[in-house]
Design brief:
By secondary structure, this protein is an alpha/beta fold. The protein contains twelve helices and six strands. The longest helix has 21 residues.
């Protein structure tokens, strides 16, 4: 994992200001996907740790926290889940949270983050293809309605991520990196360059052409899922349970870990 480039110490300061210990925070969104614009929002995602007392009483805890602010005219967005909720999402074939966990753009990390990331391969199943197929379909409908470049790039990104995951058992969210691993439409580098100049705008490519390419990639995803050597169910459910219990009890015993 590497530090989030060009984002500065201000983001780490935001992490330290959270009311409960943050186990990790990474950059997601367009920066992770390899096609940020000059004015793209910065999407921070991570995990915090609620006190055990908040989980065993009668009051429903707030397991997800979000904060938005402006920094030098750029919108910043921090969303964290409590560890238990995040791990449950991992076990629900949710590729989105796995991309956050494994993002190489790291703002804050620690031993718990490294341990959880090490368990991530045991969560992967062939059924994660459903997540990427559904996400691609949602983004494609948005593109058809608006004609905007951003949802079109999202469509291609999630299809290629899903295909690579089914074939190699590896989560790769960076679209430019995926172009070198899976045969892809030749116009995608130009679309990525267009997106770098503006966050919103029309896609400069014929609709019929991109529709044919998207349908072809859906077919490749179906084939990759059918041929995938990934299992049907996670193999680390018990290990994740033990991890959550150990981290929670350790925090209660030792107090909040220093950030």
């Amino acid at each position: 994992m590497t530090d989030a480039p060009g984002l500065g110490a201000g983001l780490a300061d935001v992490v330290t200001e959270q009311p409960d210990p943050v186990l990790f925070a990474t950059v997601s969104g367009a920066h992770l996907y390899g096609f940020p614009s000059r004015d793209s929002d910065v999407d921070l995602r991570g995990v915090h740790l609620l006190p055990t007392a908040d989980l065993v009483g009668l009051r429903e805890p707030t397991e997800t926290r979000s904060r938005m602010w402006l920094r030098d005219g750029v919108e910043m967005d921090l969303v964290t889940h409590d560890l238990r909720k995040f791990v449950r999402l991992m076990l629900r074939r949710n590729g989105y949270v796995l991309e956050q966990l494994l993002s190489p753009l790291v703002v804050h990390t620690g031993e718990e983050h490294r341990e959880l990331a090490a368990l991530a391969p045991g969560v992967l199943t062939r059924h994660h293809a459903h997540h990427y197929r559904g996400f691609a379909s949602t983004q494609w409908r948005l593109f058809e309605r608006t004609g905007e470049l951003k949802p079109l790039l999202y469509t291609f990104r999630v299809l290629l991520t899903g295909i690579h995951l089914m074939r190699r058992g590896e989560v790769v969210a960076d679209l430019p990196a995926l172009l070198g691993r899976i045969p892809s439409p030749g116009y995608l580098p130009d679309l990525i360059a267009q997106k770098a100049e503006r966050e919103h705008g029309a896609a400069d490519v014929p609709h019929a052409r991109v529709q044919e390419d998207v349908e072809r990639l859906h077919g490749l995803l179906d084939e990759a899922q059918a041929a995938s050597s990934l299992p049907d169910t996670p193999s680390v459910r018990d290990a994740l349970h033990d991890f959550v219990v150990r981290v929670r009890l350790g925090a209660d015993r030792d107090g909040p870990a220093p950030l």
